[in-house]
Amino acid sequence: MRKLIIWNLMTLDGYFEGKSPWDLTYHQLAWGEELRAYSLEICRQADLLVFGRKTYEGMAAHWVDATEELEIKEYMNSIAKIVASRTLAHADWNNTRVVRDIVGELATLKAQPGKDIFVFGSAEMADSLLKAGLIDEMRICLVPVVLGGGNPHFKPAETPMVFTLLEARPLKTGGVVLRYAPAPAS
Q1: What are the start-end ranges of the E strands in the chain?
Q2: Across the chain, what does the average pLDDT equal?
Q3: Most CB within 10 Å of its CB: which of 27, 160, 162, 178?
């Protein structure tokens, strides 16, 4: 059975992007050789990426013509991708298909053989997947900055969600990669 894993960078005050869409300048505070190596490790671990529409549009706009991180660029452009959207009719980025019922689709895909499935960014969709109980692991790089506002990674919930720490990997940049699994229901 494949794992469904959320991967994102987040500020100390809980934001995955700043006050305007795609304000990700804080990522540079955590980026370095260690986070680059970790990103390549994720590349080897996955055979499918999943994005919400907004993240998909930003990723496609960046990685198609990226001039830096060519190894990651090659991976991002060649791997199979799904964009969850109720408004897109088609996806132009290489190896991407549009899915309307992302919860149903990922439940089916998790049961099939293959490597892990990663959700990059896409906090609103990730929230839906968490609430549906589909997430096997959450990986967050905690970036040592307080933005004071922006788009929060975690959305309001009716009940608390408890997680078990699997790993904490400090980076020389001051960031910390945290791996969590949903705690078993008691």
Answers
A1: 4-11, 15-17, 46-52, 80-84, 96-99, 116-120, 137-143, 151-152, 163-170, 176-182
A2: 94
A3: 178
